[in-house]
Amino acid sequence: MASRPDIMFATCLCARNQAYPNVNHMLAAKKIMRYLKGTPSLGLWYPRKDGFDLTAYSDSDYGGCKIDFKSTCGGCQFLGSRLTKHIRIKYYFIRDCYEKKLIDVLQIGTTTQRADLFTKAFDRLRFLFLLNVLGVKERAEVVSDKELLK
Questions:
Q1: What pLDDT, in 10s, does the model give residues 47-76?
Q2: Which of 117, 121, 130, 142 is the most exposed place for a label (fewest CB within 10 A)?
Q3: Which of 115, 114, 106 lies closest to 75 in space, CA to CA?
Q4: Residue 108 · residue 57 · CB < 8 Å
C-alpha cells in the first residue's frame, strides 16, 4: 500500500476481519483486486523539481465503522506537493510536538482535509478529488523519463 494510498482504507477494513472472514469479506477483497487490475499504472510519482516544504494532515473518525463501531485515525505527510508517508498517528506524539512548539496544529474542514481518504469511504467524485490532491496519478500523466533526467 506504500505507493497505492487509494486502497489503504478498504484494505485495512478488510484486514480487520481476516481472522474470521465471511462471504462479504471475500466479495470486498475481490472488488479491491478488480480495482487494482483496472488501474495498474495508478500510483505516486515524484518529479525531481518539487519543493521540500513538509506539511502533515491527520483525520479521525471516532466510532465511524457501522459494523463494529471501531474508530479510525490516519494521517499523511507531504514533502512539497508529493505524498511521502501515510501512517497512523499517536495522539501523545502530536501533543508532545505541539507542546515543544515544533509544530503548529490547525483545524481543517472536511472539504480540504487530505487525510480523509485514509479514514472514510467516499463517492466516486470525492474519491477522485482526494486522489488528485494526494498526487496519485496515472503513469501517462507524469512527465516522461527523459524530462525527469534533465
A1: 667 666 777 777 777 666 666 666 677 777
A2: 121
A3: 115
A4: yes
pLDDT of 23: 92
* pTM of structure: 0.52
Element (H, E) at 78: strand 72-79
Region of 78 (left: φ > 0; alpha: ψ -120 to 50; beta: rest) is beta
Question: 42: which strand partners?
Answer: 138
> Comparing C-alpha atoms, which of 26, 27, 24, 35 is closest to residue 1?
35
| Contact criterion met (CB below 8 Å) for 146 and 104 | no
Q: How far is CA 30 from the centre of its chain?
A: 20
Residue with cell string 482504507: 9
Distance (Å, whole) CA 129 – CA 4: 15
Q: State how far the Cα of 24 lies from the Cα of 31, in Å rounded to an integer.
A: 11
Q: Which three cell numbers stand for residue 125?
A: 467524485
Q: State the Cα–Cα distance between residues 75 and 63, nearest whole angstrom.
A: 17
Number of C-beta neighbours around residue 148 at 10 A: 13
